[in-house]
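Repro:
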Amino acid sequence: MIKNRNEVTTFLNYCLQNNNPFFAYQLPKEKEIHVGVQKDADLCDYQNLNELVENKGFVFSPFDTDGIHKAWFIRSDIDLEASEIKTESIQLLGNEELSFVNSSDLGEVFGSSQALYYQQVKSMIHDLQQKALDKVILSRIEILDGIGRSKATSSFLKLTEAYDSAFVFYVSIPGIGTWIGASPETLLSVNKDKIETVALAGTQKIGNRLLDQIHWEEKEVNEQAFVSQYIENIFEEHQLNEIEREGPTTVQAGNVVHLKTSYRLPLKMNFDQLSNFVKDLHPTPAVCGLPKKKAISLINKLEKHDREYYAGYLGPINSIKKISLFVNLRSMKVLENQMALYVGGGITADSIPEKEWEETCLKAQTLLNVITK
């Protein structure tokens, strides 16, 4: 529980209302919330992480880096731990209200019907059975009415208290979007001289079971194996060895469990090499499918909504030895009077539409169980 909750809420709400680009996050297994704020409206986009060398702040990248949405970098002109925030901290921001036009974060987003979802799954299964692809991820949107910008900060703080094993985040870039979420999936973590990434796939409701009581079906095991093999191929392409592999093991994320394989290796890359590694790694088959280009093409063809930054990546960067990038999952885009909750799941040739829908409902409950209380 945050002792200075009122002060933190007031500060973050002021940043949101004042149109300051800002971010707040809590790393997995850490109790402290980190807050960074940019004091001006000079937004910085980037194409490759190496453009941000020597910069300190937060990156926010879309799902499709070749699409219409840009990847953004928020400077941490103001860098605070939540426990340091006081009533007078607002004075650090200055008195000038920043203005933005054509703000897409206030636009309308439409939810996905169950009938449309079934139709999309069946269409994907047809392509998968024809061996055009091995796997593809289908996402949908659930609209939450009556919960919008005024509830964004409180929803974020609720998530930090509920999910200490996830990357809980709150990021706002005026004119681009405001998102909150609790991601279970690391894309790339660099801490001092160690690199870590994970292959995460397969989903079940945990219910009253213990982790060692979970049984995985062949479809789920194969789905996770696709992701693992993809990551191992990227290692090979970048001539990376000395890999420590752990798993697959069953891990819990809220009300669901996943299959996870962890990879660790020594940091022997410069910033350019690390940037290219991230570029090749994202998006992984866990959010896209295989082969990657065919999967993205099919997603763009069948999904009626724009994923924007859902299934992209985000996180703080400090230096080459301090980077924490996570996949934008279990997340919501904040609208004026609504939140658009994005959920997805892996479709294979053996998928059953009703079960796939059920899986997305389970994933949605990860956030709904917390923010609707």
